[in-house]
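Course assignment 3, question 2. Fill in each field.
Student: A.L.
Task: Predict the tertiary structure for the chain below.
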Amino acid sequence: MSRVVDKFWFRQIFVLLVACLHSLSAGVMVAFPSVLNPALLSPNSTDITADRNQASWIASINGLSGIVGFFILSPIFQSFGRKAVNITLNVVMFVGWITLATASNVTMLFIARAIQGLTVGGVFIAAVTLSEYSTPRRRGYFMTLKKISIGLGSLTCHTLALFCTWRQIAGICVIPISLAILFVLLWPESPSYLAMKGRFDECEKAFIWLNGNSLESKMELKELINAQMEQHELKKKTQNLSQVKKFFIQLNNREMLKACFIVALVTLCIDACGRYFLLAYLTQILEEITGSNSIAMYGSIVSDLLLISALAVSCLVIRLFDRRTLLFGLGSVTIFLMFIISIAVFTKSNFNFLSSITWLIPCLILLHSFIASVGIIPVAFTISAEVFPLEHRGLCSCISGVAFTIFYAATLKLTPLMIEHTGVSGTYTIYALIVTFCLAILFVILPETKDKTLQQIENEMKGKSDKNGRLLTN
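Answer field:
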């Protein structure tokens, strides 16, 4: 029996491996401005140089191009399947790294980062794909392992920067993304996608290949197929409508809008609590506070190690505690620490208080990053992959992805400007208020999703389930 369990676990791990390789590359991409910008702005550079405005746009342009990427990737995701979209995702990332490594001027850097930005949609698409391929018990920590890979990517970027040029780092990143392309070719198609398309025999084969033939698996498969058969019956009633009318009917779906709103809020929480602005600008923030470039550089490496440790801890924590408990409990601690950092930096800057304890504020920033990475960040990412209704997953990914890329680009673009005009203290205060606002709304509308199948979560979002999320029947 254990060998059978191990076989299905290994098959799901194989899917996880592709997500992790892509996330590793994405982690380097997010942290890359911390390596590229100093090189571009250095007066002693023998390579490409740029002014501060150009450098900030190079850092943030991939967030803007991510909006375009969602309009390309989401239709592939919904119409051609999870394998096709993951192949596309990784091929585009591959082209982006090649272009970056061979760039000869600022324009080529813009183009390379814009190409990479097309894959920003991978944050949702890879997460939703992984949620469809994994069992409910594994889904939480699989998502967290995927996030650890982003942390490893950031650590890799900052570590390689000690002895590699930004071009060499870009060339090295071709390796993991090439492996991801090869591995995804060996996947079966997602059972959820096959069921949505009415290919129920193929769905059953793929589901059993991934999950086995246990009683629990049979029940989950039956729920999935029954729900999609019901959806196919409903589709027949609208089959004579034009595509435009069908689109607006889908756009007005209450469950879809609620799911997109929830994901937009948790995404804004992720951005505002420091997930991306700390990866990209921690060196600048620490140098601003301490006045020491060496402290800032080594602080970035320590931050990456803490991030990986935090996500490793969250693999255990996310299996033990409910999603809501972690999100609101550790989310409150995160907000508290952000306000403490703001007050500490303000008093140091304006009253010369705590100036003799140079390590205190950097340690508070690292503690804040650790707590956020144990609780609010992995839970928010997990929730964002769980609440989309299957029938609307492509459109939901597109809408939520556009929101994600806008938040991501705005964070990368505005953070250095906020630091310049309001200081580190004002920046932390603004972001803490945003997280507080988002969590207050989520406290009212967010359902519990831990250990429920995606179909059970969908039933609950539709109000068609009992307290355990199971479909109610007449």
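Instructor remarks: Residues 1-5 have pLDDT under 50 and may be disordered. Residues 393-445 form the longest helix (53 residues).
Grade: pending
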